[in-house]
Amino acid sequence: MRTNRREFLQTSALASLAAAHSTSVAADGRTAGISTDAHLNASEIARRHMIVRDTPSPSFFDGMLLGNGDVGACVVVRPDALAIHIGKNDCWDIRVSEDIADHVLPFREVLQLWQRASEEAKKTEKPDMLYLETTVPFFREYSEKVASSYDGKKWPRPWPCGTIWINWDPTWVEPSQHTLDLATGLFTLTLKCTNVENENSRVHLFVFVDWETGLISASTDQALPVRSIVYSPEIDGFHVGPFESGKRKEASALLPSPETSAGIFPDYAEFSSFQYFPALGPISDRPSPPPSDKDRNFSSYARISGRWSVEPADPSSDVHLKPETRQLLRIDAFVATPRDSLLRRLFQQHTTTRGGQDWISIPQNHAYSAEDLDTKTFARHRVEELAKSEPRTIQHNSESKWNEFWSHSAVEFNDWELERIWYENQYFLACCLRPNKVAPGLFANWSAGEIGTSWHGDYHADYNCEQVYWGVFSSNHVEQHIPFVELCENLLPIATKFAAEHFGLPGAMFPVSSYPAPSQIVAYPVPPWAYQFAMTPWMAQSLWWQYLYTQDENYLHRVYPILREAARFIAAYVKRNDDKKYHFNPTVSSENWGFTVDQRLNQDSILDLALAQFLLKAVADASLVLAVDEGERARWKEICENLAPYPIATGPYGEVWADVVNAPVGHIYNLPVTLAPVFPGEQVGIGLNTRYWDIAKRTASTISLEGGNDLVLQPLIRARLGMLDLEWFKQEVRYCRLPNGVANDRIRQSGGRYAQSLDFDFMMHMGFWCENFSLPAVLNECMMQSYAGHIRIFPNTNNLGPARFENLRAVGAFLLSATYDGHKVTHWSVYSEKGKTATLVSPWAGKGLRVIRGSDHEQVQVALKGDVASFDTQANEIYLITPSAKVDQ
Predict the structure, then answer these.
(1) Could you tell me which of 624, 546, 548 has the C-alpha nearest to residue 836?
(2) Is the confidence at residue 621, as pLDDT, over 50?
(3) Among 113, 305, 638, 653, which is least packed, fewest CB within 10 Å?
(4) Is the pLDDT of residue 116 over 90?
C-alpha cells in the first residue's frame, strides 16, 4: 500500500538523525558489505539479479516470464524463432457441468454412508482401513458420482490466449544472449545476423508487457530479416505430433473453434482472434447447452508495422504473415475480456474510490452487457490508441510504474542468493497480482496447451490459494491482496449456501476447490475433501491480516461479513463434550487418512483447532473494533478459550504434536500440518505461548515431509521458531528452481503417498506454481516478525549474514527499516502510519530501547518491561530506535 512518506524518509534530516544515533559502523561507511546509505534503491538491486541466458531455451519451462498482474507472457527462444505464449488471469473456459448437484447428499446422510462403510470394513476384519470413501464399493460409487464434474471433465480451466511466433532463418540469424531485467520487466534478445556477403550485424529484440495497459510489445532496434510472423490460437482438441502440423479431434464436448482473421494495409498488417466461452457445460441429457447470459469470450488483436502479405488459411487456424522486405519490427498486441471493458467504463465514470485507491469488485456470476461482450472492438481500439506512441515511450512509462512498485520496500543481503530469491519472487508476484483483476489460479497467468491445467488450474483452499499472499503484507504490497478479497466475496454466497443446504448450519463453509466461473455450485463436494473444516478459517485469515497490517477500518467494514459468516459456521459445527471442551468431531486431516473406521483418525484435526483459534479471536476483535455483534462475540471468545487441546503423540524423541487424535508417529506428511499451531495458526512462536515451545521445536525437528508442497511453509514455520538454517533454505530452493527463476513443486522422498519408482519431477512441468512466489515471506520473517503483538527484528539469523531492509510492514500499520551487520543490529527506525502504540522487543541483549522522534529529535517516553518497550506514536511520524541501559520495571 502506497503512503506519502517516501520523500520524508529520504530527507537529510533523517539521514543525519540516523548518523547521530547509530551504533558502531565500519570506518569506510559500509557494514560487512551492506550499504548504509539513507535509502535503498530496490529497482537497482533488482537489476543486479537480471536473468541471463546465453543459448536458446526452447522449452516453455525455460521461458522468461513477463506480466503486469493480469496479462502474462512466457517468452521462449528457439534457434529459429521467438515465441510469446500469452495468458490472462480472467481468460478461462468457464464451462461447468452442474448435474452433480442433484447427487450431493446432505452431511447427515454422508455420515450414515460413513457408518455403513465402517461396519463393512469391520465385517471383513479390517478395522484399521483408511480412505473408506474410495475403498468400500458403495461409498466409492457415491464419491465418484459427485466427483464426475471435476475428475471427469477438462473444464473449467485457464484458457491460453495464443502464441505469437517471430520466425527467422537460422542460416542467417543466430540468437545469442537473452536477458530479463527484473527492475523493469524488459526482455532483450541479441540476434547475430549475417548475409551471403558475410556482412554481420547485431539486432536487439525487445519484449515487454506494459504495466498500465497489458499491451504486449515486441520491437527491434534495427531491421530484422524475419521469415514470418505467425499467430497460433489455442484450439480445443487440437494436438500436434512430432512429425505433423497437428489435427483437431472432433467431439461434441469441445469449445467452438476460434475465429481468426488477418488484414493488410499500406503501413501495417493486423490479425485478430475471437474465442467464445459458453458458461454451461454439456451433460448427458443436454449435450449441447443453449447460450446463457453468463457466457463470455476473449479477443486478441495485434498490429504489425511495415509491409506484409498474408497467406490464405482456415478461419479457425494459424495466421501467417510474410514480410515484403527487411524492416524494423514492431508488434503491438492486446488481449481483451468483457471484464476489461466493464472495468474501463466504471473507472471512467469514477463510480468507486476507496482511500484514494480505485477498488472495484465484480461478481463472478455477473451477466455482461452486449457492449462489454464486444471484445473485438475493445481490443482493436486499445491497440489503435496505444500504437500512436513509440515503443520506447510506452516502455519508459511502464518502467516508471515498475520503479513505483519497487519503491514500496527493499532488502539487501550480503548473501547474493538470498537476495536473488527475494527479488525474483517479488517480480513474479507483480507479474500475476493486480488490484481489480482476477486472482491467479494454481499456475497464474502463464499457460500453453495443457500446461497450467492440472487440477483445472483452480483455487485450492488447502494452502495453495492462500499461500500466494503470505508475504504481500510484510513486503508492503497490500494492494496485491485485493484480488483475493474479491475471490472471497465471490465465494461467500456459495459457502453460505453449502453451509445451510448441506450441513443445515448458519454461516459459511468454504469449498476446497473453486473457479473464477459463473457457476454457483460447490466444485468438489467429494469425501473427504469437502469436509476439511480448516479451509473456512484459512480462507478468511488474510482478510484479518490486511486489517492488522493497515488498521484500515473502512476496509474492515467491507470484509467483516465474510469473517463473521466463517466464524458462525465454525461456532455452530464444533461440539462441547463432557470435558467441557469444544471438539471437531468428525473432521478430516488434509490429505491424510481419509474417512476411517468409526472415525478413528477423524477427531480434532490440529489444523482445524489452530485455525479456529485464529479465526474466532480475529472475529471477536473485529466485532469489538466495529462495535457490532456483542452477543456473538462472547460466544466466539468462549469457544476460542475452550477448544480441545492439540493432539499429542509420543515418538522416539519424546512428545510431538499429531495431526489428529490417535495418529501414528513417523508418518510422512505432504505439509507440516502437525505444526499448524505455529503457522498458519499463529498461536505459538518466539515469546508466544511458551508452554508449547519444547514440543513445537521437537515436532519441527523430527517431522518427515515428502516435499512438493512445503517449500515455503516448512521454512516459514522454522523462522517463526527462530530455528531456520538459511543455508538449508537456499539448498531447498535450488532443488526446486527452474532456469527462469521459478521455484516449482518437487518431491523430496518416497514412502508416504509416493512410490519408490515415482518420477519426482511429476509436478515440475505442470505449470508455474505461483504459490511459491511467496518465498520472500520466509526472508521477511527472518528479518522482522510482528504477528504476536510485538515487533522483533532479525529474530532468525542462522547463516543469514549481513542484511538490511527498508519499509517492511508490521502489524499496527508500522513501516520498519533496519540493518544487521552479521552480529548485531546497527540501525532501526519505525514509521507510524496510523499513530498506534508500538511494542518492540530489544534486539540488543541486556539492553533496553531509547526512542527518538524524527520531527524534533526529542526522546520519547518508553514503558519498559524486561526487553519489551512500548510507546505511543503519532500518525505520519518516524522514530529512531537505539539501545539504552536496561531498566527492569
Answers:
(1) 548
(2) yes
(3) 653
(4) yes
Cβ atoms 606, 646 nearer than 8 A: yes
Asked whether the beta carbons of 492 and 508 are under 8 A apart, the reply is yes
How many Å apart are CA 813 and CA 10, to the nearest integer? Answer: 20
Separation between Cα atoms, residue 205 and residue 203, nearest integer Å: 6
Answer with the residue of higher pLDDT: 355 or 712.
Answer: 712
Helix (H, G, I), strand (E, B) or coil at 667: coil
Candidates 12, 10, 18; CA nearest to 827 is: 18
Alpha helices, DSSP H, located in 124-220? 132-135, 137-151
Residue with cell 508488434: 331
Is 719 a residue whose pLDDT tops 90?
yes
Strands 704-705 and 668-669: parallel
Neighbouring C-beta atoms of residue 172, cutoff 10 Å: 14
Instruction: Please state the rounded mean pLDDT for residues 567-589.
Output: 97
Compute the distance between CA of residue 132 and CA of residue 35 in angstroms, rounded to an integer.
Answer: 60
Strand ranges across the sheet with 81-88:
64-67, 71-78, 81-88, 163-168, 226-232, 319-323, 308-311
Euclidean distance between CA atoms 5 and 796, whole angstroms = 28
* b/e sequence 471-505, b meaning 16+ C-beta within 10 Å: bbbbbbbbbbbbbbbbbbbbbbebbbebbeebbeb
H/E run at residue 388 = none
Quickly tell me which residue has 447470459 as its cell: 293
Cα separation, 727 vs 800, in Å, equals 8
Determine the pLDDT at residue 398: 98
pLDDT of 10 strictly over 70: no
Q: Where are the alpha helices (DSSP H) in 706-852?
A: 713-720, 726-736, 776-783
- Measured CA to CA, the distance from residue 607 to residue 588 in angstroms comes to 10
Confidence check: pLDDT of 13 > 80 = no
Indicate the SS3 state at residue 402: helix
H helix intervals, 176-314: none
d(C-alpha 485, C-alpha 487), whole Å = 5
How many Å apart are CA 742 and CA 65, to the nearest integer? 9
pLDDT at residue 31 is higher than 80:
no
Question: All 3 cell numbers of residue 857?
Answer: 529529535
Euclidean distance between CA atoms 232 and 220, whole angstroms: 22
Dist CA 652 CA 100 (whole Å) = 47
pLDDT at 238: 80
Question: Which one, of 129, 101, 99, lies nearest residue 114 by Cα?
Answer: 129
In the block, residue with C-alpha cell 519408490: 756
Per-residue pLDDT band at 578 (split at 50, 70, 90): very high
Q: What is the mean pLDDT of the chain?
A: 93
Gyration radius from the chain CA atoms: 28
CA quadruple 38, 41, 44, 45: dihedral sign = positive
User: CA 724 to CA 733: how far, in whole Å?
Assistant: 14
Cα–Cα distance for residue pair 279/520, rounded to 1 Å: 11
pLDDT at residue 26, rounded to an integer: 33
Least confident of 223-232, 285-294, 441-450, 848-857: 285-294
Per-residue model confidence as pLDDT tens digits over 66-86? 999 999 999 999 999 999 999
User: Above 90 in pLDDT, residue 30?
Assistant: no
Q: How far is CA 407 from CA 41, 411, 477, 646, 878, in A?
A: 7, 11, 10, 42, 18
Alpha helix locations (H) across 456-527?
Answer: 464-467, 482-498
User: How far is residue 796's CA from residue 722's CA, in Å, rounded to a whole number?
Assistant: 5
**Residue-level pLDDT at 8:** 31
Full DSSP string of 341-387: HHHHHHHHHT---BTTB------TT----HHHH-HHHHHHHHHHHHT
Give me the amino acid identity at 121: A
> pLDDT value at position 9?
35
Query: What is the phi/psi pair of residue 378, to 5°?
Result: -60, -45
Pairing of strands 838-841, 825-832: unpaired
* 33 pLDDT higher than 70: no
